[in-house]
Amino acid sequence: MVPVSVLDLAPIVEGSDAAAALKNSLDLAQHAERWGYQRYWVAEHHNMPGIASAATAVVLAHIAAGTSTIRVGAGGIMLPNHAPLVVAEQFGTLESLFPGRIDLGLGRAPGTDPTTAHALRRTLHSDPDGFPQDVLELMSYFHPEDPQTVRAVPGAGLDIPIWILGSSLFGAQVAALMSLPFAFASHFAAAQMMQAIAIYRASFRSSEQRPHSQLMLGVNIVAADTDAQARFLATSGRQAFANLRRGMPTTLPPPNREFEREVVPFRGIRFEDAQSISIVGSPDTVRADLEAFIERTRPEEVIVVSHIYDHAARLRSYEIVAGLA
After folding, report:
1. Which residue among 4, 182, 228, 237 is least enclosed by CB atoms within 10 Å?
2. Would you state the torsion angle of the CA atoms of residues 259, 261, 266, 268, taken in this order, to the nearest 10 degrees?
C-alpha cells in the first residue's frame, strides 16, 4: 500500500458550530499522527456553512501546534484569492514555527461561489488564468536568486514543498512543466483523472530537486465495521453534495436511510464516467477497493476525505484505513 494522508474540510455538522469543528479537526490530526498517516491537509473554502477552514493558515497553525511529527499543509490555498507575497509570509511563518513539517498546495479556483469570489478579490482584475505566473512569483519569494526589493520575511530561503492541485487537465500541465508534485481532486472530479495522470507523467520535466513525478490522488472513504453501517454513515456526505449541487450548501447533516440507494458500489465503475472516487464499506471491502484503485492509477500517495456526521465514527473510519496501509 502507498502512503496515506488525511484531507480535512473541518466539517461543521448540523446542530453544531465552527468551534466544535476545529476542536474535532485537532483531535483527528492527533489520532492520525499516532496511526501513521503521512500528512494532514486542510482545504480553503469560503461562504460554506459546513466548512470551518476558510482561514486556512490559521487552522494549520492550530493543527501543527497540537501535533509533533505529522506533516501539515494546505490542500489547498486558492491562489487567486491572495497576493503571492502574503502566502509566502504566512507559510514562511508556519515553517519557522514548525520546521520541516509544512506543505503548501496551490489551486487556481476561488473555492467558492462567484459572488463570494468577487468579495475575496485581491484586485478588481484578478485573473485565474494568471495562476502559473502567480506560482512562479510565490516560488521566487522562497528561493530568491537575485537581490529583491521585496522579500518575504519569514519565507526567504525556506524549503517549503509546493504542490499543484487540480481537478482538470490544466493543473496537470502546470505541475509537469514546473517539475512540481501534483495532487488531483479525484474525490470530487474524477472524470478527467486518468487523462490528467497521463498528461502529468508524460510531460513531467525532471529537475535536480525533483527527478521524478510525484502524484497524489484524493479518495472519499467511509469505513465502518460492516458494509451496512458504512453505507448508512455515507449518506451524510451524499446529502451535503446534493444540497451543494442545488446551490444550497448546508452544514453536514446526520445520516438518512432515504439516501442509502445513492451510495454506489466502487467496483465496476468506469473512472472516466465517475463524478468522484468513493469507497464505502467494511475493512475487507475498503481494502479490496482501495487496492484496486491504486493498482490501476499507481499514485505515489493517496489522500483520504471522510464526510461523516459523528466524530467518533469519523475517527473509526480513519483508524480502519490506517490499519490497511
Report:
1. 228
2. -150
Q: Residue 237: name the closest of 219, 274, 268, 263 by CA.
A: 263
Do 213 and 204 form a contact (C-beta atoms < 8 A)?
yes
* CA–CA–CA angle 145, 95, 129 (5° rounding): 60
32, HSE (Cβ side, Cα atoms, 13 Å): 32
Q: In whole angstroms, how far apart are CA 120 and each of 77, 83, 115, 123? A: 13, 11, 9, 9
Over its C-alpha atoms, the chain yields an Rg (Å, rounded) of 19
Q: Structural domain boundaries of the chain?
A: 4-324
User: How much is the pTM?
Assistant: 0.94
311 close to 24: Cβ distance less than 8 angstroms? yes
- Cis peptide before 155, with omega less than 30 degrees from 0? no
- 268 pLDDT higher than 70: no
Q: What is the mean pLDDT of the chain?
A: 92
**Nearest CA to 224 among 137, 313, 311?**
313
